[in-house]
């Protein structure tokens, strides 16, 4: 009987202990915290205390309890030193029901089981999991094999792991804590997040990934639209950590993969609007001052660079330049506008917008037509004004081209008026120069004549006197002849 009684007592004791331990494990809550952040271990009692209460937080390591932080009824706090976590409870021990423990700068070694004991209250267990996202290699270049790892310390029993890049989900098998990219590119740069979820809670940890190489554009799908006669920038920006051995621009031939001739106004990094002061980038962009018909095509920016670890590699980007223009034609007093685009592979819709200017130069935009047609018949009453052709793909606006007939006609009239004024000005200047030459020649002759006269004043006097005397004698002879003729006629008449 005694043995049977003892056996019954042992069974009763075991039946009591097992539910208690199970209740502890059932009450244990899980907290997931990113490495380096603040971990908050919850310990909230059902009601606030009306008198000072003693609180103690312990950490269980291999079945051994170690005090992390405690506070007596008097308010005196005790904190662990050495390798213990930097923990404290910010709430007072009087008139509060929240005794949660805050751990600053959480590390992997801070993970594990914690126990909160409040005087006169039930014991609460909290399991702290520290989450960390890392990648290898530590320095990532374009084309490298990249492995991202989401480590959780300690590992939970049940969990769901998902990956996100810049807030967008990444297609991967659920629960996989490693994600591998065979050939990394600039599209893989950004903020990588590991999302962890279980039945009780969810958390995420993030890390920033920078891929060294050409930052802009990110891939070879870059397309730049430019209207004929306008300027355009072809972007090519490298990481500043790279050391350049060489960099160049070339144009891909339309018929072969060989280099073609660059436009006459093509310059490298000569656009004043491009910032060169950024400490994070090296600008090797190209600038075309005036885009001409025939400049469309594929341009390639390439460079041989060297990383800080001495690794050399070559990177390049291809950029497609597409030219735009609005052509006009007049027939029977009707104007037709055509939106000419050198490549319409990405264009799905066109929109024609009429722009008018008010008295105070305010622009008024009126959408006239939006369809898949690139041709617009302009009403007679709207021949003047500014017309804009906008072209779209399925997601966004790609670019636009502008036609300004009133400005064009004004420019033509201005050019004709300028040409006429120039001709009149040239004729007037020639006449004035000729008149000045004649006046100067006459002045020179008079001056020369006076100069010759003043060299022999006595001879001039003699010549002048001789001429006067000769003239006087001729006059006297003429007078005598007149008188003699008159006297000869009178005697004859008297004899008769």
TrEMBL record:
One of its GO terms (cellular component) is membrane raft. InterPro entries: Ig-like_dom, Ig-like_dom_sf, Ig-like_fold, Ig_sub, Ig_sub2, Immunoglobulin_dom. Residues 19-127, 128-210, 217-320 form the Ig-like domain. Coiled coil: none annotated. The chain crosses the membrane at residues 423-444. CDD domains: Ig. This is Ig-like domain-containing protein.
């Amino acid at each position: 009987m005694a043995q049977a009684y003892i056996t019954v007592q042992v069974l009763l004791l075991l039946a009591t202990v097992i539910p208690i331990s199970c209740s502890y494990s059932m009450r244990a809550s899980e907290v997931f915290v990113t490495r380096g952040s603040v971990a908050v271990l919850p310990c909230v009692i059902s009601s606030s205390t009306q008198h000072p209460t003693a609180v103690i937080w312990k950490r269980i390591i291999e079945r051994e309890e170690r005090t992390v932080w405690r506070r007596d009824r008097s308010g005196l706090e005790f904190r662990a030193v050495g390798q213990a976590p930097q923990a404290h409870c910010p709430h007072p021990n009087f008139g509060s029901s929240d005794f949660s423990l805050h751990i600053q700068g959480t590390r992997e070694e801070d993970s594990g089981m914690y126990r909160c004991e409040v005087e006169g209250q039930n014991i609460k267990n909290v399991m702290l999991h520290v989450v960390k996202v890392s990648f290898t290699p530590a320095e990532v270049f374009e084309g490298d094999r990249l492995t991202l790892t989401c480590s959780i310390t300690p590992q939970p029993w049940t969990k769901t792991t998902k990956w996100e890049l810049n807030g967008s989900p990444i297609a991967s098998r659920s629960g996989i804590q490693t994600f591998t990219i065979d050939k990394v590119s600039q599209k893989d740069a950004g903020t990588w997040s590991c999302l962890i979820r279980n039945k009780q809670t969810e958390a995420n940890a993030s890390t920033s990934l920078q891929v060294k190489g050409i930052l802009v554009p990110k891939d070879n799908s870059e397309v730049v639209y430019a209207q004929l006669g306008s300027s355009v920038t072809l972007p090519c920006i490298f990481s500043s950590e790279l050391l350049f051995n060489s960099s160049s621009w070339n144009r891909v031939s339309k018929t072969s993969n060989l280099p073609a001739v660059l436009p006459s106004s093509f310059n490298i990094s000569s656009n004043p609007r491009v910032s060169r002061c950024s400490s994070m980038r090296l600008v090797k962009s190209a600038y075309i001052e005036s885009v001409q018909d025939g400049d469309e095509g594929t341009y390639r920016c390439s460079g041989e660079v060297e990383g800080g670890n001495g690794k050399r590699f070559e990177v390049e980007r291809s950029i497609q330049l597409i030219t735009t223009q609005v052509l006009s034609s007049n027939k029977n007093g009707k104007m037709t506008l055509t939106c000419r685009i050198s490549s319409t592979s990405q264009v799905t819709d066109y929109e024609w917008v009429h722009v008018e200017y008010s008295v105070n130069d305010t622009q008024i935009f009126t959408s006239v037509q939006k369809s898949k047609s690139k041709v617009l018949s302009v009403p007679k009453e709207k021949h003047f004004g500014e017309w804009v052709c906008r072209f779209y793909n399925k997601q966004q606006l790609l670019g636009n081209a502008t036609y300004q007939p009133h400005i064009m006609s004004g420019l033509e009239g201005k050019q004709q008026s300028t040409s006429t004024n120039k001709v009149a000005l040239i004729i007037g200047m020639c006449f004035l120069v000729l008149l000045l030459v004649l006046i100067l020649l006459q002045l020179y002759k008079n001056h020369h004549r006076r100069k010759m006269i003043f060299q022999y004043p006595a001879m001039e006097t003699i010549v002048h006197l001789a001429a006067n005397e000769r003239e006087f004698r001729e006059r006297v002879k003429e007078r005598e002849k007149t008188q003699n003729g008159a006297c000869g006629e009178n005697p004859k008449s008297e004899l008769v």
